[in-house]
Design brief:
- The structure is a homodimer.
- By secondary structure, chain A is α+β, with helices and mostly antiparallel strands.
- The first copy, chain A, has two domains: 2-67, no CATH class; 76-335, Fumarylacetoacetate hydrolase, domain 2.
- Chain A contains seven helices and 21 strands.
- Chain A has helices spanning 35-40, 42-58, 89-98, 156-159, 178-183, 242-249, 288-299; strands at 2-6, 14-18, 24-27, 65-66, 72-73, 82-85, 113-115, 128-130, 137-138, 141-147, 163-170, 173-174, 196-197, 201-202, 211-212, 215-216, 221-224, 227-230, 260-262, 312-316, 329-335.
- In chain A, the strands form five sheets. In chain A, strands 1, 2, 3, 4, 5 and 14 form a six-stranded antiparallel β-sheet that branches.
- Chain A starts with a strand and ends in a 5-residue tail after the last strand.
- At the A-B interface, strand 7 of A face strand 7 of B.
- Chains A, B: GO terms for molecular function: hydrolase activity.
- Chains A, B: This is Fumarylacetoacetate (FAA) hydrolase.
- Chains A, B: It holds the Pfam family FAA_hydro_N_2.
- Chains A, B: Residues 81-333 form the Fumarylacetoacetase-like C-terminal domain.
Chain lengths: 340, 340
Amino acid sequence: MKFATLNDGSRDGQLVLVSRDLSRSVAIPQIATTLQQLLDNWQQKAPQAEEVYQALNAGSLTNSQPFEQSGCASPLPRAYHWADGSAYVNHVELVRKARNAEMPPSFWTDPLMYQGGSDAFLAPYAPIEVASEDYGIDFEGEIAVITDDVPMGIPAEQARDHIRLVMLVNDVSLRGLIPNELGKGFGFYQSKPSSSFSPVAVTLDELEGVWQDAKLHLPLLSTYNGEAFGKPNAGVDMTFDFGQLIAHAARTRPLCAGTIIGSGTVSNKQGTEYGTAIAEGGVGYSCIAEIRMIETIRDGKPGTSFMRFGDRIRIEMLDQQGQSIFGAIDQQVVEYRYQG
Amino acid sequence: MKFATLNDGSRDGQLVLVSRDLSRSVAIPQIATTLQQLLDNWQQKAPQAEEVYQALNAGSLTNSQPFEQSGCASPLPRAYHWADGSAYVNHVELVRKARNAEMPPSFWTDPLMYQGGSDAFLAPYAPIEVASEDYGIDFEGEIAVITDDVPMGIPAEQARDHIRLVMLVNDVSLRGLIPNELGKGFGFYQSKPSSSFSPVAVTLDELEGVWQDAKLHLPLLSTYNGEAFGKPNAGVDMTFDFGQLIAHAARTRPLCAGTIIGSGTVSNKQGTEYGTAIAEGGVGYSCIAEIRMIETIRDGKPGTSFMRFGDRIRIEMLDQQGQSIFGAIDQQVVEYRYQG
């Protein structure tokens, strides 16, 4: 099944089923009006939604509407828990290498994870509002899963069974604020503003053949100001699978239905020491920080700027037939001014 | 007004108004069935609730019920945002002193803040389930506020106007997991399991004379295994007021109605270098870590153990007439075993 949430002006939006080809949608108020409601009662309601989904794809519903990605809110416009891992350890290693720091060996066995703001997600086509370009504005293309209720202390293998939906993420980061904030020792807070998610979240049966070992084996496409910027395969170099990430999150507390767990920035090692840009025949990158780190290692200093007002990032994933699976995240950075 | 959420078996519980003396309660489904609903529409619904509250206190409602704190869930059983500051910098300074580390001077001007799990709060009388005593189980007595919608970039002075409710917190901490986790650089995650809040959350007009300068000027009482353990005044040595903490949280993103902002562990400097236990005539402590730090500084090593299975912590605050304002957090630590 594919789900989206239409922005109807309410805080939680209106849940709709979206056809497999993303062309039509239908509201299902008889089953659930919001995605959180559906997740709260998944066992009971998912089979009912599946019936409607079959009819929607068969073209036999008279009440379906054209589906517009730009009319979507985040699948969960606000969520109770959003935790982001750093499963592509290559990305972390590059960060360290760029500042001549050793990476602790435990990073290969114990996931990094931080908790992000989940009360005010951006819509997939919403502008990214930032007060200053000096904050070092960056995108981070990632995969995320939404879980049902997960008990505390669950092993990784069993945690896989709690994945209900998959989507894409833009984990917006303010690189200029990170060193000071991490230096304080309490982790990210101001340096991670509102994240955005793909218009559509899908069940695992929509990913047949490409969802294996709790990883999504397809390229994640990042297009920056109209140019191909990254296409690393999300199934490659993912050190921790989603079962391991969920188990890490649930080690000392249960997770409530609707918890979102992110993969961290998708990054492929590419068989070279530094990775390679798409223009050089490589798979490129899922964030600007990574190319800057490679420039720093190679040239002694970064050459690519972080995002400026007006810059645009598009993040998408195509299936093996070239069809968009989740719809696109497509966002432009704009200047924010506080209206007192 | 005073609000509580009764545990009725549902995920969000049933919102009730509670009489000022905590003796009676009444459901207000005609206004809101959950506290989040009320916060989502505060301007419209609060005046309606105020009318019922007056009648409840006057004893003129025929449908009120006896109020039982032990039947309560957390005021918000699950919330979209829970961020905890460290406003009592004395506490932070002691942590550093115990390990012979200098505290950066910026800690006096730039608040520390971390985001905690908000999807599965513990009820105020619920057991604290932990898998191992080796995790270093500790309580942390704190004050917290609940905001309405706060715009990004708000100044501290204006942020004060967004405080809707006040309550108490037990920010349960696993001290044994903290050094390794903070050493990884991403902040707290597994070392901060589910927090708990007082049964009752109150509006500012309930705190007349003791809510000043966005601080709550009353002693926070911690009773550990039946013995008085702490009574520091929450209005003393609070370096950052709640307006400053909210403004810090909202610097790079808006806050959604229902955001909970905590004060960090309440701690008074007490005019001595090390602070003083209640038995020694001082105001004591709001967590075990603090007395252990003082023992370490004074004796070279800590003498007090962290919590063991069976230990009990009670956190409460009395008004100037000796009446409980928020009801009590009263929790026992028990062993958790994963049921596969």
